Write the structure tokens for this entry.
Amino acid sequence: MSYSTTVDHEEHHDHPSGMLRWLTTTNHKDIGTMYLTFSLIMFMVGGAMIMAVRAELFQPGLQLMHPEFYNQLIGVHALVMIFAALMPAATGFANWMLPLQIGAPDMALPRLNNWGFWLLPPAAILLTLPFTLALFGIGDGAIATGWTFYAPLSVQGGIGVDFAIFAVHLLGISSVMGSINIIVTIFNMRAPGMTLMKLPLFAWGWLITAFLLIATIPVLAGAVTMLLTDRHFGTHFFDAAGGGDPILFQHLFWFFGHPEVYILLLPVWGFIPQILSTFARKPIYGYKAQVYSLCAIGVLSVVVWAHHFFTAGMPVPALLYFMYSTMAISLPLAVLFYCWIATIWRGSMTFETPMLFAIGWIILFGIGGLTGLVLADVAADAQYHHTYFVVAHFHYTLFAGGIMGIMAGVYYWLPKMTGHMYNEKLGKLHFWLTAISFNLTFIPQFFLGLAGMPRRIPDYALQFSEFNMISSIAAFTLGLTQLLFVYNIVSCARGGKKATDKVWEGSNGLEWTLPSPPPYHTFNEQPVIR
Amino acid sequence: MARLRITRIWQCLLGALLPLTAHADYAWNFPKPVTPMALDTLQVHNKFMIIVMVIFVVVLGIMIYSIVMHRKSRDYQPAGFTGPSTRAQLFWTLVPFAILLYIDFILMGIPAFHSVVAMEDTRTDADMVIKVTGSQWRWQYEYMDGPAKGISFVSNMTTPQEQINNQAAKNPEYLLEVDNPLVLPTDKKVRVLLTSSDVIHNWWIPAFGAARDAIPGFLRETWVKIEEPGTFRGQCKELCGKGHGFMPAVVIAKNEEDFNAWATSKKAELQAAAAGADKEWTKEDLIANGKGIYEKNCAVCHQVGGQGLPPAFPALTGSKIATGPILDKDNKMVKDGHLDRVMNGKGVMPAWKGILNDTEIASVITYERNALGNSLGDMLQPAQVKAMR
Ligand code: HEM
Ligand SMILES: [Cu+2]
């Protein structure tokens, strides 16, 4: 058995230091830090890519790049943001906080944990390397099919598609390893007295996420492997001429792809209530209702996949089924919203940066959810589908609902992780600039989509000029604002006002009973929950 | 006093916003619908938007009230409830749930049901059938029945590359203009069959409300019934490669009489073009004719100068295939030769025999062999192409 579950930690205090510490570490906090750092770096990389895109879209006409390169940028932007920024950030928090929150000394499978992380950098390199190779005349650049890999376009694509397929394999293996670890940890390593119904919501969110990952990642891996054999080994899974079906690819992809959206968000839905409760100084409202809703959403998320390709043609009963089941997701989601709002209702609120992000998150994610409800309508979706309306919708869920939620978590736990307070003024400035420029970036995109601008186009008709210009200017502001975030994190890690153990007046949960930062080996004596 | 200030702020805001709305280019909602389907979608959309807007404003209002009133700086003492306990609280939790259930499956669900059924009903009372084929990166139209039966042509974007590269002023219909628009009669239910010759495309004209994927190897269908004459523009909206942004679909709707007249003249025009295949052409005429065809169809990939974009798109200048023999000594088509490649395509290269007529294929091949840095001096007669079909 792995040593971390035994009690005699003191002998291991001579753990390696310097580079070797980070390469070989099996400590959940070190690994969590690595995940979060990696995520932040990749967030900036993905952001830089999309700023280049927004620069190209600033005016009609092609100014900066070939359409081919443009397509590569939007595809890699999405893959990087989803797989290398948002997912690792959530995993980073899981590594850092789950053991602390459930009173465990470490994750259950530390060696696996180390491997899970070290698969990520090679995957990130596989995703971005084709750009560089193309500079030296090798291949024709990165994957240019959008992040969805749709066949047959991806069958005819260049070497970048193969790179992306291998990157997805690595990322998938990493996620499944992380998921196994989280499930085992939550089921086996809880402190005595912590029943499942006392589990922090963050742990619940992650538990469901982990099961979803294990259920769906293999389907994606299968789909891209079939794609690989179609490309190089003469199979015809997705080629009608050989008896295959291009739409099969879409089914397989979105059977993974739709749950993936919830995989990205469920961990965030887990910790936002904790933040709200902390700064409202009031217990979480409707804990059980939230647990059941999270489970319901987990289940529903795997049965609605085909709403991503209504315009591909389906029998009417299938259209109706996918429409109504999609609408049904709004019910448990509304229960969650209700609980979040009821948690702050009649609280005694203060508005430190994490709380600002959490409240802004409810409002902006609400816009994402409500526009999603509209998108479920098959007839209207024919107009929205593949337009900028959808781009705006999913950025309200992924940027506001995902990244801004993660930001709330970063500010919330940073003092605990580093032992120092971050700069509150800068944090608030970061929030306001982010919230305002985010809306100015994506509200015009709603209008663009309704007026008929397709997505994934490098150039557009003249009637779309004004809104694109506004959106680009706001996106540059949004991108630059994130430098504040990086600066604030780095300076907080290097020093600053000492953080107390409890950090926030209203905080509760096991992690706040530990010193800030927590010692390298936590919980040598297991806490007991009553 | 406070109210006065608030009105002042509103005036300023409105003042700032007005120039925006006055500018015609700020199109921000669906274009004016011209088919029953588009009208239906617009109505559904408007209704939904109002519903979600109301939900949003109500919820936001509750939050703002709470944020303003229930804050520590006002010394508000936190309550301790963790769930509904009294009967009134239970009521307030169940009511929103019931309202949402009603909105989802009655208020939105029922009209959505009817729209879907109407949208998918492509056959009832259909007056004519057309076939739309997507290919990288142009649309091909074919009339399957009615007065225009047998007419088929290819529709290419006509926006010049100089405008795209910002070397010339842009046309008002920049990127939304084509050489051969689809012409349809008004007030007729037209069944549209869709397919593709390479990757997935999506034929979409916003004013029609109809958008449907064109999938290689499969047929998909949708329908339009245009209620007023006019020109309607849209674009492909499924990522289909580097030319995806440059694949407009333009439809001209004419009343029945004008449509019939158009069909007659278009047929005559196509017949004249086909007749060209039987006459003997001079090399100069073929080259001159081929230049336009090359620039319209081939230059997207092989570039105007023929240098290509290797490795994806091979150069034609000095190319083995483009300068090799066309016919062997028995006057058969050389396999993998110039004509074979152009007629039958390979990989990303489309099979042009379904897109171009004999004269066009003969012209463009002759052009490729005597321009773009090649000078073989030979030529290919349309009649020879015709014989190879
Ligand atoms: C600075 C913030 C961001 C900006 C300004 C931005 C902007 C854009 C733009 C302009 C596109 C291209 C749309 C198109 O041409 O169809 C795009 C695509 C996309 N973005 Fe972002 N984005 C940002 C952050 C994010 C984040 C944080 C995520 C997810 C975690 C994300 C996920 C995606 C996805 C999934 C696509 C679709 C790519 C495709 O078409 O395959 N973006 N984004
Ligand atoms: Cu297309």
